[in-house]
Write a structure and sequence with these properties.
The protein is of the alpha/beta class. It is built from 18 helices and 12 strands. It is globular.
């Protein structure tokens, strides 16, 4: 009888265990919209490969509203609201303490992704998220105009300035009075901060704050980058660029009134719409270098998959993140939704290339993506970002020189940091 007790006890325990281990996870996925086929694909994969069920929760479309909702959930340490969530690339450091440590679950995946994208998700040596989709700044150009004037796409800002000046003048002389050489995001908001990062990093001026948390902005190369950008306003870029966000820039370029445009990948398909005046006339190249000794530097954007630290089954959440990070799943997201995949191999996929040959042009851009200093500056990044784009705006508007701006920005960042980034 004594020998049977352990067996009876085990039977009793296993009768209880399924309820504890067969959980229902909640994932942020807007199934009521265009994402429904993708969400359903993920659900089928997860439920066929694990004993768990998957439910979806609708999230606000606006990223700031989504972040506010996450912060509300995390403040309450609510383990029932969401298990697996999508986070903006600049939120990983901000939400660090609320995200489950995925290091032991996903560290083998690192070689599959672009290095800077992966590193952005590592906080104090721990992996807190896995890349889901990519975004990066890129330079759009008019293929027909460069061919007409026998020019190649610029590799440096100096080349861009020369080509833009030449073509702008020639086109205006030919009757195209609204032609400009370059449009970008010049309004004082996060978009300008992204542009400023590209300008400064392309001149090897750093990223304002380095990965170790050191403030590095006050240097001659950063000042030169800002002075160069300021020289464009009113010459090859309209003065109105000081009020442009992404869509204003795209409207000018897509209407045929600009030679070059700095923007994100989303703009490509819009320029190729059947009603677009520049359909079939647009090319994409990496952001120019700051001189021959500079580098291509595109601001990293995109969304990552993470697991809530308050999830009741974070191991199952980690399994779902692995499914979401697979090449096949990311390919499905692209084919269904046009979302640029984060995995490197996806850009060689025959099915992806057949649907979107232009993606081959994006690969080099993504390889050069530079993360904003959101991970080292943690919860203070919003203040850092505001200080950066305000400094950039001051230089573009002529209120400050590049030298004055980087010195002032250094002092502002020191005040924000205090003794350490928190």
């Amino acid at each position: 009888m004594k020998k049977l007790l352990p067996t009876a006890l085990a039977a009793t325990l296993f009768a209880v265990l399924p309820a504890a281990h067969a959980d229902t996870l909640k994932m942020a996925c807007n199934i009521s919209g265009a994402m429904k086929p993708y969400c359903e694909h993920v659900k089928q994969r997860f439920e066929s490969e694990t004993p768990h069920k998957l439910e979806f929760i609708e999230m606000p479309a606006a990223s700031d509203e989504k972040l506010a909702l996450y912060q509300q959930i995390f403040a309450a340490k609510d383990g029932s609201a969401v298990d697996v969530l999508s986070v903006d690339v600049i939120w990983v450091g901000l939400l660090d303490k609320h995200l489950y440590d995925l290091t032991d679950k996903v560290k083998d995946l690192e070689p599959a992704f672009f290095p800077n994208n992966w590193k952005n998700n590592v906080v104090n040596g721990r992996i807190k998220a896995v890349p889901g989709q990519l975004d990066a700044g890129m330079l759009y150009y008019r293929k027909d105009l460069l061919e007409k004037y026998k020019e190649q796409p610029p590799k440096t800002w100096e080349e861009l300035t020369r080509i833009a000046t030449k073509i702008q003048k020639a086109e205006r002389d030919a009757g195209q009075k609204n032609m400009w050489g370059l449009v970008f995001q010049g309004k004082a908001y996060e978009g300008l901060g992204c542009d400023v990062l590209e300008w400064v990093a392309s001149y090897n001026g750093g990223t304002f704050v380095d990965p170790a948390g050191n403030i590095t902005i006050n240097n001659p190369k950063a000042a030169k980058a800002l002075n160069t950008a300021a020289s464009w306003v009113g010459t090859i870029a309209p003065k109105g660029v000081m009020g442009y966000q992404e869509e204003e820039s795209r409207a000018v370029f897509q209407n045929g009134d600009a030679v070059f445009m700095r923007n994100w990948p989303y703009a490509y398909l819009l320029t190729q719409d059947k009603s677009s005046p520049v359909k079939g006339k647009v090319g994409v190249v990496p952001i120019p270098m700051g001189g021959e000794d500079g580098q291509h530097a595109a601001t990293l954007g995109g969304w990552q998959w993470a697991v809530s630290a308050y999830s009741k089954n974070p191991e199952a959440g980690a399994k779902l993140v692995r499914i979401l990070s697979e090449a096949e799943t990311q390919k499905r997201a692209f084919l269904l939704l046009g979302i640029p995949p984060a995995r490197i191999e996806s850009y060689q996929d025959a099915e992806v290339q057949a649907k979107a040959p232009y993606l081959a042009e994006f690969k080099d851009v993504f390889a050069n993506a530079v993360p904003r200093p959101s991970t080292p500056t943690r919860s203070q990044f919003p203040k850092v970002s505001k200080a950066v784009f305000n400094a950039g705006y001051d230089v573009l508007s002529g209120r400050a020189t590049g030298e004055q701006a980087v010195a002032d920005l250094e002092e502002k960042l020191k005040r924000i940091k205090g003794r350490e980034w928190k």
